[in-house]
Design a protein that fits this description.
CATH architecture of the largest domain: 3-Layer(aba) Sandwich
Number of strands: 10
Structural class: alpha/beta
CATH superfamily of the largest domain: Tetrapyrrole methylase, N-terminal domain
Strand content: 15-25%
Low-confidence stretches: none
CATH class of the largest domain: Alpha Beta
Shape: elongated
Strand order of the largest sheet: 3-2-4-1-5
Length: about 240
């Protein structure tokens, strides 16, 4: 019986730092062993791999995309090379695949087919922000994006604030970078004065910013520069 390949979940560093400033060199060994990659965006993945010292021309590699445009019937096709014994790497645009990024669907399919799924070490902005926040790291929830419509967004903020207070559970959010300041303003407008808010931006970059303060304190300070900067927000 022919053995199947392995799916490696490969973190892609956030920002512009050299990959092995934030990734272990053991990741390089795995990446160098692969010639098939399932990626969120081919252009981004090629750029990452060109900086990742893979020791071969990028044009020798095969790429298949898995993102919001991938039809369900196409996902099974992406796993076919692994069933034939070829290993693959899953790379999202930034951070760790399968966590707030594509990858969970392909990992789930691999489990159904008996294909081993191996997560590699790398930075997750969600966990980095929580680590630095001083908020509850024993109980937390990642809530992704809040609604865009103002009424629905305010309702969602109140819901998660109540949950944070009732369960003492850190509530984590992200936003499209160009809408960061709008979310920040809404949090300051909707939340109670004693609620704590962490804002973390450009994690692991030279311009890294992490601050936790009460809503009351945030309201008296100059707004942080968050425009078009990858950011994480946490309430407790």
């Amino acid at each position: 019986m022919k053995s199947v390949g392995t799916l490696y979940m490969i973190p892609c560093p956030i920002g512009e730092r050299a990959p092995y400033d934030v990734l272990p060199l053991t990741n390089r060994d795995v990446i160098r062993s692969l010639d098939y990659f399932i990626v969120e965006n081919t252009r981004t993945a090629r750029r990452f791999l060109s900086r990742a010292e893979i020791g071969r021309p990028i044009d020798e590699l095969e790429f298949a995309e898995l993102n919001e445009h991938t039809r369900p019937e196409e996902v099974e096709r992406l796993v076919k090379p692994l069933l034939e014994g070829r290993s693959a790497g899953m790379i999202s645009e930034a951070g760790v695949p399968g966590v707030a990024d594509p990858g969970a669907e392909i990992a789930a399919l691999c489990h159904r087919h008996g294909i081993r799924v191996v997560p590699l070490v790398g930075p997750s902005s969600i966990l980095l922000a929580l680590m630095a926040s001083g908020l509850n790291g024993q109980s937390f929830a990642f809530n992704g994006y809040l609604p865009v419509k103002p009424t629905e967004r305010s309702r969602a903020i109140r819901h998660f604030e109540r949950r944070a207070q009732a369960e003492h559970q850190s509530q984590i959010f992200i936003e499209a970078p160009y809408r960061n300041l709008k979310l920040f303003d809404d949090l300051l407008s909707v939340c109670q004065p004693d609620t704590r808010l962490t804002v973390a931006a450009d994690l692991l970059e030279p311009a890294e910013f992490v601050r936790t303060a009460t809503i009351r304190q945030w309201r008296t300070e100059p707004k942080p520069d968050l425009h078009k900067r990858p950011a994480i927000f946490i309430l407790l």
